[in-house]
Every structure is written in C-alpha cells, then in structure tokens.
Amino acid sequence: MSGNTGLTWRLIEEARARIDGKVHVTPVLTSAALDALAGAQLYFKCENLQTCGAFKARGATNAVFALPDSEARRGVATHSSGNHAAALAHAARLRGVRAHVVMPDNAAAAKSAAVRRYGAEITWCAPTLAARESTLREVIAATGAKLVHPYDDLTVMAGQGTAAVELLEEVADLDLLLCPVGGGGLLSGTAVAAKTLRPGIRVVGVEPAGADDAARSFRTGHIIPSTDPQTIADGLRSSLGERPFAEIRRRVDDIVTVSDEAIVAAMRRLWEVLKIVVEPSGAVPYAALLGGAASLRGTRIGIVLSGGNVDLDRLPWSR
Amino acid sequence: MSGNTGLTWRLIEEARARIDGKVHVTPVLTSAALDALAGAQLYFKCENLQTCGAFKARGATNAVFALPDSEARRGVATHSSGNHAAALAHAARLRGVRAHVVMPDNAAAAKSAAVRRYGAEITWCAPTLAARESTLREVIAATGAKLVHPYDDLTVMAGQGTAAVELLEEVADLDLLLCPVGGGGLLSGTAVAAKTLRPGIRVVGVEPAGADDAARSFRTGHIIPSTDPQTIADGLRSSLGERPFAEIRRRVDDIVTVSDEAIVAAMRRLWEVLKIVVEPSGAVPYAALLGGAASLRGTRIGIVLSGGNVDLDRLPWSR
User: Fold this and answer.
1) Residues in chain B within 8 Å Cβ distance of A317
2) Whole-model pTM above 0.90?
3) ipTM score of the complex?
4) CB proximity B137 to A under 8 Å
C-alpha cells in the first residue's frame, strides 16, 4: 500500500482551510475534579458542541465544498440514520445545493426532523443495509447526486482530522489521544493529524465491547465486519471502512473496548462535572479511563468527545 | 451616594488579575440555529462550564484571595444552600484555608456533597433565614472566620463582573447584554464592567415572574424583599442586596420577568441545541428571547448562562 493513496497531512491541511468559518472551532474543556479522579491531566475536545452536534460536520462540510461546481450542482447523497445525514444536509444548504438522504423507515423522528430542518430530501426505505444501499443507488441514478460516504472517503476522513489539529494546537504536549471508533473516519483522521504534529503521541481507539469489530480487525489485520452489534452507543455500530482501516493499521497504537455500563457511567459523569450533553458514543473514550490505569498516572491525555445528539426524553439513567 | 463607595472598574480589574488561572476563562458559544430563531446574533457566555458549575467561583475566589493572610488563616464562612457554598469551599481549599458553611437541614444531598467534597465544614441549622443567620454568627464567633456574603459584597460583585469582561473582549460590539438577577451580584458586576468597556451597551436583568422582587425594586427605586418566591429557578429566589442594588439602579437599563414555563422551555432548547447542561436560573435570560422581539431584530446580544448545577435524576421535563 502506498502512502500516496491514503490520507495525507496535506489533505487535512486543505480540509482545515476549506471548512474554516463554516464549522465551529470547538472549545477544549478541563476539570480539576476529573483530573483528580483520573490521576492525569485530561483535555476534552468538545465536538458535541460542534455544528449539528457532532464532529461529522467537519467531514461532510469538507466533502461538499471540495466538489467542483459541475458536480456540486447535482447535489449530494448518502444513506444514514444518524449524525452524518444531518451534517451533510447542513453542509449542502451552506453551499446552496440539494442533499438527498436515504433513511430507514424506523429512524428516530428526532433524527429525520433534523435532516429535514436543513432542507434535505428524505427517501425512506426498509431498515436493512441492502435496502439502504439499493435505494441510494436509485436516488443517485435519478438525480446525478454525488455520494458522500459517512467515513469510507478520504475527503471526509481529512475533515474529521481537523478536530485533532485544533486540539494539538491548543494543547501541544499530549502523551495520549483517545478517540471513539465506529466506521473509522474520526479515528483515522485523528491518527494522521496527531502523528504528523506530534510523532511521539500515542493514539488509541475506544470501542463498545458489544460492537468490537474494530478491535478484532485491528488484532487480526483484516476487516471483520460488525454483525449484530449490541451497544447503547448508536454511532459506533457500523463496520470499519477500508480507507479508514488502512490508516488505523499504520498509525493507531491500540484499540480497546469498554462495557455499556462504563459508557453510561462516563456519560453521566461528563454531564454532571463538565456540564455538557454528550451522547453515548461520545462518552466512549472517557469510559476507558473510569477504571483508572496506573500506567497513565501523571500523563496528559486528549479525549475527543465526538457528539451530543441524544433524546432528552429517553436518558439512559431515567428508565 | 458617592461612586467611590460602590463597585468600580478598578475593583473588577483587580479581581481579574487575582483570579487569573484559578477559575476558567469560559467559552462563548454561538448557534446559527438559535440565531435564526431569535432573528438576532446571540453570544452565550457559558458560566455553567465554570469551575464548580457556576459564575459564583469568580466572586468567591476573588473574595478569598483578597483577604490578608492574617484574616485568611482564620478561614471563611457563609450560609448558603447553593452554588456560592461550593464556590467558597473550592476557593478556600485553593488558598489552603478552612471554609465553614451553614446549610439548612433540608438542603439537597447533592449540594451538601459538593460542599463537603471541597473540604468545607458544614454546620446544619433549621431551614429559616433567621436560623441560618444566627447559626452563622455563632460559627463566626467561635472560629473568627471571615464572612463572605454571596452577593452583598463589593469584592464578590467585582469577581462576578469578570465574566462580562471576558465576553466583551471576545465579542466587542454587543448591543445588549442579558443577565439573570437574584441577589444582584452578577447583574451589578456585569453592568459596571459592560458600561465601562462599552458605554452604549444596554444591560438588562431577567428574573422569574414568581420571584420578581428585583423588577419591583427597580421600578420603585427601593429594595422590596423577596417574600415566598415561587419559581423553579432556585438560584434566583433571594432578595436584592443593598450594594448590588445601588449599582443596578445606576447602571442597568431594565429588568424584565419571564414565566417558569418559558424558563423550562429555554433550558430544554439550550440543552438540545447548544448541547450544554444549564440550570433553570441559567436559562432565565434566554427565556426572555423565546417570544421574539421585533425591536431586537438584527442586534447582537450577549447572554450570561450563569450555571449548570441540576439534579440529572429530576429534570423538569421528565416528571
């Protein structure tokens, strides 16, 4: 595999310039109370406070604005029931082009409402991957819209990497960066950015134990698809993409897993102490620190809180 | 009344230098979605993300560190069932002195736990103002501790004013600043800071309709005590202090009231869109914008989100 065909630092730099002013530079929060509990200095990169409530705005905005006018004018398309759909709809509206989103007909009403609020066209389909893919093909054939994959796309991955760039510019001397991993877009972008800016940093992906395809893929060296994932972290149920996995194999130091119990405890503690709304997927990397780890004592740890889109009427501790 | 005896810009500048590095410089968040709903540009100064979850850390830290060593070594004392108690305990621990907090024996367990976590000594008393004040006098007589009043104290007021200084340094050209008002510490500090840095700015206090003593005091020109306040905004039930009221009369342009229904709606919208945990009192100024106001169209509005300490098991929309 040649480095040229993968995600380069150059693509991340271009992404950063392209999305500047179109998405938020999110704050980095710290807490003496959480530092004391962890025995380490923690720096939380708050992508839950990003436009559309998740880092997905970075990649989608980069992808939509990277298109030449001739392609962009036919619109963009994706299938998604989550944050990428809203982020793509938002980016398309910013550029003034149409977004077509294929959604399973069991998608949460709140999620389809967000997509519609940004003016996207929704095409409903049966809630299976096959139906989503075939419906998306039909939509693209009918409209000529450009597919923007949620993670298996170098331009999307480059956009996601800009969060780590901002974090390391604000806090240069991190020892470790923890990042959730689902399809791998965020982790791959994070790893390329972090290892370029600070070659000695450790980059570790964190994954729900009930959707541990990335950890198993990482160990075996080939993609093991996610089958029947069982986790509250709805943003991390998808299988690793090929392009993200190529970067993850080369650049990531480890992938660890956490239980759903730890995810909910981490989420609640972040709400209570940091006073921010973090979704289960976003709390996953902090969950890895809950048990404490002697080897991390005294280190400086960056944590990417990936998103904050939750249904406030269905919080996991109020069931 | 002479200006010399009141809150001066000089005191706020001194406060800022004194608390630098001891409390957070909190982020200012924006949201295109909330701007569109309001028809104005909104800048949220996130004091809910402050140390201890509220702006109170500013005033308490300033007061504790302003004490000469000879006084500080005997400790500090206050009576409070809320954010000021935790902030004072935290500041005392930072300085390495004792904090004595008189709390009513019906105080929420979460609040006394926060105070105890910072190492303060709690003295319980009956849940009446008379019992709180007499118990506090006894504690001070026994210990020699210095009283730090939650708001009727120029050093505390000066500390609270530093939030507006940071906001106006980040966003200079605001037309209007909205700020909650309970005892008046935050509003008075905000008004002095804002009118110094930007004389043409309007500063408006916002108060729950069920605890509208500040609005009535402002209109009549003398303090009308809060009697039997009925509001979900537990941080805003106290009566105006004399020192804050003197500044508010001189510097504040208006005080308006909002219903508890609007407060809860504002709180929920801030959680959903900004992805931050805001307590009812903190959502009060934004509640004033929910109805929309033609006169504010196109203006630039700063909003002080004063705190984020809520019981996550008892959210107002999950009853």
Assistant:
1) 312-313
2) yes
3) 0.93
4) no
